[in-house]
Amino acid sequence: MNGPTEGPEIDFCDSVVFELRQPLTSITGHVQLAKRLLATDPSRASEALDQVVTQIARINLMLVELRDRARDAAHVEALFKT
Q1: Is residue 28 included in any domain, yes or no?
Q2: Confidence at residue 82, expressed as pLDDT on a 0 to 100 scale
Q3: How far apart are CA 11 and CA 57, in angstroms?
Q4: Residue 3 lies in a domain
Q5: What does the alpha-carbon distance between residue 65 and residue 9 come to, in Å, rounded to a whole number?
């Protein structure tokens, strides 16, 4: 049997975790690459760090959207309380 914390809420959380792990994995790889290239190829190191900035922006957008959806859900729930 499903408990109160299973079902759609778990599926949603799993999706959020999956979506956030992708850019974090990319960030980790690009930082490691930049560290290796810093002394020998500063231009490529800079490109790797640019990708880090891009992935951080992606995470930030996801978090803003998640926050907005949570606020919207709270507002809808408040409207239907009796």
Answers
A1: yes
A2: 60
A3: 24
A4: no
A5: 17
pLDDT tens track for 12-62: 888 888 989 999 999 999 999 999 999 999 999 999 999 999 999 999 999
Q: Which domain covers residue 34, as residue numbers?
A: 8-79
DSSP category for residue 71 = H
Residues in the chain: 82
Q: Residue 72 falls within a domain, yes or no?
A: yes
What pLDDT, on the 0 to 100 scale, is given for residue 1? 43
Q: How far apart are the first and last CA of the chain?
A: 30
Selection from 28, 4, 8 nearest residue 16 by Cα: 8
> 33: which 2 tokens?
């690459």
Token output for 66:
């998640």
